[in-house]
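#data-curation
PF: Archiving a pair of folding outputs for the training set. Convention for this channel: one message per protein, sequence first, structure tokens after, nothing in between. First:
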Amino acid sequence: MSLKELTKAEEAVMKQVWHLQKATVKEIAALMPDPKPAYTTVATVLKVLKDKGFVEAGSAGNVLTYFPLVKEDDYRRFAFDKVFSTYFDGSYENLVSFLVEEKRLDEGAYQRLLEAAKKLKKK
């Protein structure tokens, strides 16, 4: 299955689903950051996530329980790869340069980033 990009609202709900691993709309809504979305908003987002193949629902009586179908690490890689290719032209040098210049990294963090980038290139 190919992953699809999530909206901010979908990502926020998915973070709670990943955290809980199995939850009802009410449980997910309760953990959302302030300002908390309405119950119906969370339910609608979960339906969209189900349609996109990110979650599945099972029923326990009258209550639907949602669980993730996509692993958080898989989506994290997908999202990073999209940003990496779009904003850094797939260049580790551009990424590290951005982090150093824009995020004011110290020398130790810079060296760790370079080493990590070198390891990635070897893969």
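PF: Second:
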Amino acid sequence: MKIFMAKNYCVRLHALFGTASTAGLANGDLEKERRQFLTQFFSPIFLKAFSITFFGEWGDKSQIATIGLAADENPLGVVLGGILGQAFCTTAAVLGGKSLASQISEKIVINKIFIFLYHIRCLFC
């Protein structure tokens, strides 16, 4: 029952965010003003990383599981465990990406991806 309630909560949040976006509450002028205000206090790379992580994790299975876990267990422990887990995962991704970028050119990776996709497309033609 608690998992069902958690899924229902996430669906409502997605619906609310989608309604706010389509209603014009997140228009371009407001976004520019908000961006200028935020860049006074935070660096642009911090804002990009935060946005990518926040919206990438919003409403996924781990968030639903965390809501269910917090319903049964100590919420403070769930928050601290979630923060540490995300921090370790992000740290591994950043260090791995930095190491990989120093060894492989981005152009080579992009070219290899396009070649791979071309060969996959040729299989189905």
